[in-house]
Amino acid sequence: MKNFNPRIKARFRKNKQIIKKEINNFFDWVKGAELVVLNECNTDEDPVRPELNNEFRTGYGRKIYGVKYKNEICAVMCFGFTNEIPKSVKELDLMTKDAFLKSTMRDQRIGQIAIAYTIWSKKKGGGKLIVKEVFKMIKKSNHLNRLITLSPLTKMARNFHLNNGAIELQVNENTQNFEYKI
User: Fold this and answer.
1) Confidence bin at 29 (pLDDT 50/70/90)
2) Contact 167, 153 (CB under 8 A)
3) What pTM was estimated for this model as a whole?
């Protein structure tokens, strides 16, 4: 950089500092984020299944999880807990109710399979982070032994799950299932 114009050198240093600051800010938010259970979410923000209301998302054997950073929800993932793999939202509804009712007769532990049926991020890196945090939570549980998705038939969903370490289980009429190894 000896022969470069001083203005170019200054601009280069400034851009380098900006990039370094952005990278540090990104890692700060990832390190400071925590997984929380939500009572509701803004369903209009859901790009996958906006038609499902909060009553559905928190009913019989279903929960909403979020990644929270500084009182802001940065990513959301909705789950149903079942004992079988659903091929549609209707099957998910029936299977979560069945697992919920069976759990009331036993130990209150709903289902053995966590079915992620929608996920979205409001901050860069949030989708990958919530998958990682939920994965850790499921590993710690002593009754969940599988993490499976009920994803739409889109290339984006396919690429997201395959790039995050899932394997494709099956392609259904309107959905596809991927599994994250626990």
Assistant:
1) low
2) no
3) 0.78
